């Protein structure tokens, strides 16, 4: 009965305590990785994508915002614990245009994670041979400094870091 259940749960405690020692082996950084801010999705038709999330799925969807410095139109979809960023090309040199040429129906473009100190993160990441796609942070869709990490250095994922 109860004693058998307690004995069966004992190994779980050992596993959990061993994961604690694993985290102690992670070197401390001068900067801290924070929460997932958003997942960005490139879309070939921004109006249809807005309608899907607003009218079909019932999400709160922002107005379209042009970000000429990044070559994109953006729309944010609120999800409670994070956001989706819908991206559509703005101008001929938009990085989203080339993405959509390879992915005609659209798809996940990048993830955005908050950091507490973007300048220190840049310095440490460069020391660790992680390529940053700009020399200096640019102002992103939330009005905060952002940088992008090369996807080849991040297991095939384009990672955006945003100052929290």
From TrEMBL:
It catalyses: (R)-methylmalonyl-CoA = (S)-methylmalonyl-CoA. One of its GO terms (cellular component) is mitochondrion. Transmembrane segments: none annotated. Residues 35-164 form the VOC domain. The keyword Isomerase applies. SUPFAM superfamilies: Glyoxalase/Bleomycin resistance protein/Dihydroxybiphenyl dioxygenase (SSF54593). GO terms for molecular function: metal ion binding; methylmalonyl-CoA epimerase activity. Gene3D superfamilies: 2,3-Dihydroxybiphenyl 1,2-Dioxygenase, domain 1. Keywords: Cobalt, Isomerase, Metal-binding. It is an enzyme of class 5 (isomerase). InterPro entries: Glyas_Bleomycin-R_OHBP_Dase, MeMalonyl-CoA_epimerase, MMCE/EMCE_epimerase, VOC_core. Its EC number is 5.1.99.1. The keyword Isomerase applies. Methylmalonyl-CoA epimerase involved in propionyl-CoA metabolism. Belongs to the methylmalonyl-CoA epimerase family. This is Methylmalonyl-CoA epimerase, mitochondrial. It comes from Furnarius figulus. The gene is Mcee.
């Amino acid at each position: 009965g109860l004693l058998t259940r307690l004995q069966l749960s004992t190994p779980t405690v050992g596993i959990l305590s061993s994961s604690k020692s694993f985290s102690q082996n992670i070197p401390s950084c001068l900067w801290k990785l924070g929460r997932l801010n958003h997942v960005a999705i490139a879309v070939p038709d921004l109006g249809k994508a807005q309608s899907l999330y607003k009218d079909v799925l019932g999400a709160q969807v922002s107005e379209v915002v042009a970000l000429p410095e990044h070559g994109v139109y953006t729309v944010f979809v609120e999800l409670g614990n994070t956001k989706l960023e819908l991206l559509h090309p703005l101008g001929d040199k938009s990085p989203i245009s080339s993405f959509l040429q390879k992915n005609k129906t659209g798809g996940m473009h990048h993830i955005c994670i908050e950091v507490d100190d973007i300048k220190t993160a840049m310095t440490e990441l460069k020391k660790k041979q992680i390529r940053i796609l700009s020399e200096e942070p640019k102002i992103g869709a939330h009005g905060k400094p952002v940088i992008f990490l090369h996807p080849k250095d991040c297991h095939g994922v384009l990672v955006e870091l945003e100052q929290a």
